[in-house]
Structure formats: structure tokens, C-alpha cells
């Protein structure tokens, strides 16, 4: 904690402020949303514990988009802070798709793991958040082959596959040529997590996280790819460089 206090100070409940930064991509008629945040299916006690603030609708409206406009929802994985707004309760308390016209893309192994989690990460999944996808809307789900290091999601949208934080996490690689960005999801959630040894306490496989992150960092440095931090409240992105002496810098 003393080390973290220098990066992101905690409050009196030992919490740090975090964003759930979603990314919206538009290409002609296609409107792609990457992750959807924590959603609305929380009781008052849970809202107080996590100090939840929901801003997705307002953020979409600010760029002239509604939830019905989204054609493709890409979920990096199914933890509740990434897939929590996949469904909302209607007036009768029945979960309905938040993005009724969207296909939902998720890694096949990530999907399977979320439906059979272990004791360590069971609390990170809330099946009610994607309940319609297990029922009448199952045909909306597109399971991505996440067995290899790279996966194809959509035309001109690939992803780097990582297994350290959780099984089958997809990190979308956005853009073409020399203007590309990597959505860091929970591999590099904040700028403070750029150093390889700095990782989250609830990563399933910490050593694997370090190995995967090292490859991600080198990819971003070598190919000048901007890193998007999903959870950083101060630094939405980082440009990574390495000095002649080998020191890594994020700006």
C-alpha cells in the first residue's frame, strides 16, 4: 500500500478511484462499443461498497449515439465491471438487452470460463448481467476463437489474447498503419500498471500476466501503438518509449 499511495491514493475504505472506460468506434453504418461498464443491476448496499456512478448513456448521447444504435458489442471478458451493462432490468424486473440491435463478441474460452468459474474468481461474474444471452438472445453471441495469441473479431479489428488476468481476455487492436491503439482492459488497467511487476491482486495467474504484459509493452514500443487504459481516471492513454539505456517511459 505505501507504494500504491504514491501512484493512486486510497480513501478511508481502502478504495481507489477507477473508471470503466469504454471505447466507441464508428465505421459507416457500424457502431462498435468495446466493453460496457458496471451497469445498473446493483442494490444500494453494493452501490455504496463500490461507489458506483453510471454514465454510459450520457457519454453515448454526447456523441449522438443511443444504446439502440450500437451494432456490435465487444466484451474483453465477462467480469462485472466490463460486461455489467449487457442487460438491464425492465419495469417488471426482467433482464433485457441494453443494446437490443447488437451482436455480442466474446472469447469462446472466456465465455466457457464465466459459466463455470472457480472459487477464486466466482465473485467477479454476475450472470444476471448477461442473462438474455443465455436464453432467447443466445443467437446474438459470437464466440471468438481465443486459443491463439491473436484473434480476429471484425474486419480491421483484431485482438491480442491474454490468459493471465482471466482466461481468454481479448485486447482489441484498433486502427491501421501508424495510427493504432491497444485497449489494455485488465492487463494494463492504469498507467501505474505499465511496469511489468505491477499487477492486480486478483489476477488469476500473476506470472503469466507478467510474461504477457512484457510482450504487450514491447509491441507498443516497437510499433508505436498507443495504450488505452480502461480504468485510469487521470490518464486515458499512454505512449510508451524506451531510452537507449533501456528505461521504459509512459506519457
What can you see in these coordinates?
By secondary structure, the chain is an alpha/beta fold. The chain has one domain: Ribonuclease Z/Hydroxyacylglutathione hydrolase-like (Metallo-beta-lactamase, Chain A), CATH 3.60.15.10. It is built from six helices and 15 strands. The strands form four sheets. A six-stranded mixed beta sheet has the order 8-9-10-11-12-13. A five-stranded mixed beta sheet has the order 1-2-3-6-7. A two-stranded antiparallel ribbon has the order 4-5. It is globular.
Compute the separation of the termini in Å: 24 Å
- Unreliable sequence segments: none
Q: How does CATH name the architecture? A: 4-Layer Sandwich
Quaternary structure of the protein: single chain
Let me know the number of strands.
15
Task: Set out the fold topology.
Layout: H1 2-5, E1 23-27, E2 30-34, H2 44-50, H3 56-61, E3 72-74, H4 80-83, E4 87-89, E5 95-97, E6 103-107, H5 108-114, E7 141-144, E8 150-154, E9 157-162, E10 169-176, E11 179-183, H6 206-223, E12 226-228, E13 237-238, E14 240-242, E15 248-250
Parallel strand pairs: 2-3, 3-6, 6-7, 11-12
Antiparallel strand pairs: 1-2, 4-5, 8-9, 9-10, 10-11, 12-13, 14-15
Features:
251 residues; alpha/beta; Metallo-beta-lactamase, Chain A; 6-stranded mixed sheet; 5-stranded mixed sheet; 6 helices; 18% helix; 25% strand; globular
Would you summarize the structure shown here?
The protein has 251 residues and is an alpha/beta fold.
Amino acid at each position: 500500500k505505501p507504494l500504491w499511495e504514491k501512484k493512486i491514493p486510497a480513501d478511508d475504505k481502502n478504495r481507489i478511484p477507477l473508471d470503466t472506460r469504454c471505447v466507441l468506434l464508428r465505421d459507416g453504418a457500424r457502431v462498435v462499443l468495446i466493453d460496457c461498464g458496471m451497469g445498473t443491476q446493483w442494490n444500494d448496499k453494493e452501490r455504496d461498497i463500490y461507489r458506483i456512478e453510471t454514465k454510459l448513456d450520457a457519454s453515448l448521447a454526447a456523441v449522438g449515439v443511443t444504446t439502440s444504435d450500437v451494432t456490435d458489442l465487444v466484451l474483453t471478458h465477462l467480469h462485472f465491471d466490463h460486461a455489467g451493462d449487457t442487460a438491464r432490468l425492465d419495469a417488471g424486473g426482467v433482464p433485457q438487452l441494453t443494446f437490443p440491435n447488437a451482436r455480442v463478441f466474446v472469447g469462446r474460452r472466456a465465455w466457457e470460463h464465466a459459466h463455470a468459474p472457480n472459487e477464486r474468481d466466482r465473485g467477479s461474474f454476475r450472470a444476471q448481467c448477461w442473462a438474455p444471452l443465455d436464453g432467447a438472445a443466445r443467437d446474438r453471441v459470437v464466440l471468438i476463437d481465443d486459443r491463439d495469441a491473436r484473434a480476429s473479431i471484425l474486419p480491421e479489428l483484431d485482438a491480442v489474447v491474454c490468459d493471465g488476468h482471466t482466461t481468454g481476455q481479448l485486447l482489441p487492436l484498433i486502427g491501421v498503419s501508424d495510427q493504432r491503439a491497444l485497449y489494455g482492459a485488465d492487463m494494463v488497467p492504469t498507467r501505474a500498471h505499465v511496469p511489468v511487476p505491477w499487477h492486480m491482486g486478483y489476477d488469476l495467474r500473476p506470472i503469466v500476466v507478467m510474461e504477457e504484459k512484457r510482450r504487450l509493452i514491447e509491441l507498443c514500443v516497437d510499433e508505436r501503438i498507443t495504450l488505452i487504459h480502461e480504468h485510469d481516471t487521470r490518464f486515458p492513454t499512454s505512449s510508451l518509449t524506451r531510452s537507449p539505456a533501456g528505461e521504459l517511459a509512459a506519457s
